[in-house]
Specification:
This protein is α/β, with parallel strands linked by helices. It is built from 11 helices and 14 strands.
């Protein structure tokens, strides 16, 4: 629920409301504007709470929040959140243009790819050191050695790095190297992992599961937000469909629905949706046209050498073409 305080309420009044919420077993999230303060109350609500809270002198009114994702909801925060990733802003008219290899494999390839995507206009570098694979016999990533290589490539080219964490036990290790910690689609409802990344003070990129609703996606974001980490970037990467030419269906409608319901930035991952590079550029542009705050695409300087997802990786040349077209759509949306 939202507790709207009377105009001019002083800090003592705010503190009193926060203390009362604590007594009722609710967490308080304070939003202070120029003229009044709104306090979001998170926790189990019941029909008696509004009456209890409106008896407090400084409370003007109590507005029930029907959506279960309270901190992620626009009911609590109308304006778009802007996430600062080591100087790169995402959301509120600022775009994340993330590119890099699916997995860190050969150090020379990572450096070459990082240099190429930077030259084309990318503002963040992606790469996997821990890889979730369907087969236990597939390449699983280089672990910490891969994190070190990715960090060096990012530093060399002035690019913040994005990389995935799969295990709650590795959150601290990944956060040591990463600028953005990614939670993949398969872990979207790994609530232990979500709680752990909520405790770090690094931005989190949360992918939507292939069979999850927008509501479930935002509820997963709520796990992270409720632990105190307010820097969450959502990523649509496709839902299960029936078209055999595409690995997943990139759901541009979900982008629109998510942005209508949450203040958090939303980006797209057309590479995993497509499964083949021939579709990646058009899907990335469709995501931007639908209002996405950027994209994350796989790029490899020599895709035939890639140990995973080579068929969907853009070449350096194709990524440069994507960036040229993306800049036009971004400019049109900013008009």
């Amino acid at each position: 629920m939202l507790i709207v305080l009377k105009s001019g309420t002083e800090q003592a009044g705010i503190d009193h409301v926060v203390d009362r919420l604590d007594q009722l077993g609710l967490k308080a999230h304070i939003s202070q504007g120029q003229f009044r303060t709104i306090i979001g109350a998170m926790g189990e609500e019941n029909e008696t709470l509004p009456d209890l809270l409106t008896t407090i002198d400084c409370v003007e009114r109590v507005v029930p929040v029907m959506k279960p994702y309270k901190m992620a909801s626009r009911d609590l925060q109308k304006e778009n959140s802007i996430i600062d990733v080591s100087g790169v802003k995402v959301g509120g008219g600022n775009y994340a243009l993330i590119a890099g290899p699916c997995a860190i494999e050969i150090e020379e390839d990572c450096h070459a790819t990082a240099k190429a995507v930077k030259a084309a206009g990318a503002n963040m570098l992606r790469g996997g050191a821990f890889k979730p694979r369907t087969s236990p016999y597939s390449f699983q990533g280089m672990g910490e050695e891969g994190l070190k290589i990715l960090r060096a490539c990012g530093d060399e080219n002035g690019l913040p790095i994005v990389t995935e964490v799969m295990d709650p036990r590795n959150v601290e290790l990944v956060a040591k190297y990463a600028d953005v910690v990614q939670v993949g689609a398969r872990n979207m409802q790994n609530f232990v992992l979500l709680s752990e990344v909520g405790k770090i003070r690094k931005p989190v990129l949360l992918k939507r599961g292939s069979a999850n609703t927008v509501k479930e996606w935002l509820m997963s974001a709520e796990y992270i937000l409720s632990e105190g980490n307010h820097d969450v970037i959502l990523c649509e990467r496709g839902s299960t469909g029936f078209e055999p030419e595409l690995r997943y269906n990139l759901d541009v409608g979900a982008i629109v629905a998510a942005k209508r319901n949450t203040h958090l930035p939303v980006i797209v991952d057309p590479s995993h949706a497509a499964g083949h590079r021939d579709f990646v550029i058009d899907l990335a542009l469709a995501g931007l046209a639908a209002g996405a705050d950027g994209f994350m695409v796989e790029v490899h300087n020599c895709p035939e050498r890639a140990k995973c997802d080579g068929p969907q990786a853009l070449t350096d040349v194709l990524f440069a073409q994507l960036m040229d077209m993306a800049k036009k759509i971004i400019a049109a949306r900013q008009c």
